[in-house]
Amino acid sequence: MSPREIPLKRKNKNNPQIKSYTDAIKRGQKNIHVFPKEGSWEVKRIGSDDKRSYSSKNDAVSGAKKYASSSGGQIFIHSKNGLIERSLN
């Protein structure tokens, strides 16, 4: 599934974080997200089925930086509640 085919179900499309994320998908960027999942942290590229799991958030961010350095893209780091807390270029 291409990034443009990903369904966007957002409650508040005027939220700056959601708008930034939505705009990035529309532009077709292959961004990388670091997010919590069932006691671990995952790193996933938008539009890809490839996921990488880490035991800590710091390890996941380091893994995302290595992943981005080899393939490009912006990194979005989510908090434990799932909201984007910051991004790295």
Structural account:
By secondary structure, this protein is α+β, with helices and mostly antiparallel strands. The protein is globular, with a radius of gyration of 13 Å. The chain has two helices and five strands. Helices cover about 30% and strands about 30% of the residues. The chain has helices spanning about 15-25, 55-70, and strands at about 30-35, 40-45, 50-55, 75-80, 85-89. A five-stranded mixed β-sheet has the order 3-2-1-4-5, covered by helices on one side. It has one domain (about 5-89). The mean pLDDT is about 80.
Keywords, please?
89 residues, alpha+beta, five-stranded mixed β-sheet
Nutshell version of this structure?
The protein is built from two helices and five strands, in the order αβββαββ.
